[in-house]
Amino acid sequence: MEKIKNSLGFGGELAGFFEHIKTNPKLVYPDTEEGRSTCLRETSRILDAIYRKLGNSFGRLPKAPLVVRRVEVFRENSVGLAFYQRPTTDGSRPGVYYVNLSRMDILKTFQLEALAYHEGVPGHHMQIAIASELTVVRNHK
What is the pLDDT of residue 135? Predict the structure, then answer.
């Protein structure tokens, strides 16, 4: 963390750097519908970019698509920052990476990639969708 702090030109103690990260308005999307839309578009862009590179490192990719959605307002207060919902085995519903946008001050711009990789690809979507597809193949033989 000291190296990161120094590389960003922050000239204080590590504790001050952490406080700076928590409170710097430049590190969050605006708490507006436009800010939320921008966050979702950026998340989709990140996933599209990594999808294009996955074939270089993985021999099998999920057949089911992955979409990014905002957590519905009615359940924003009862769920975490992000989560994944598996696709249906028949392909009628894609895998869904949900992002909770109720408190934009919590979701930092620099977290988007790590969350997308964890919840989407090469994370839960690859693991769960492929496992589900393999199970369907085994059950139909």
Answer: 72
- Where does residue 51 rank: exposed (0-12), middle (13-18), buried (19+ CB within 10 A)? middle
Residue 116: predicted pLDDT: 96
pLDDT at 137: 55
Query: Can you tell me the distance from the alpha carbon of 25 to that of 12, in angstroms, rounded to the nearest whole number?
Result: 19
**Domain positions in the chain:** 1-27, 31-139
Lookup: tokens for 59: 């021999």
pTM, to two decimals = 0.86
- What is the full DSSP assignment across 2-63? HHHHHHTT--S-HHHHHHHHHH-GGGB--SSHHHHHHHHHHHHHHHHHHHHHHTTT-S---S
Instruction: Please give the Cα distance from 13 to 8 (Å, whole number).
Output: 13
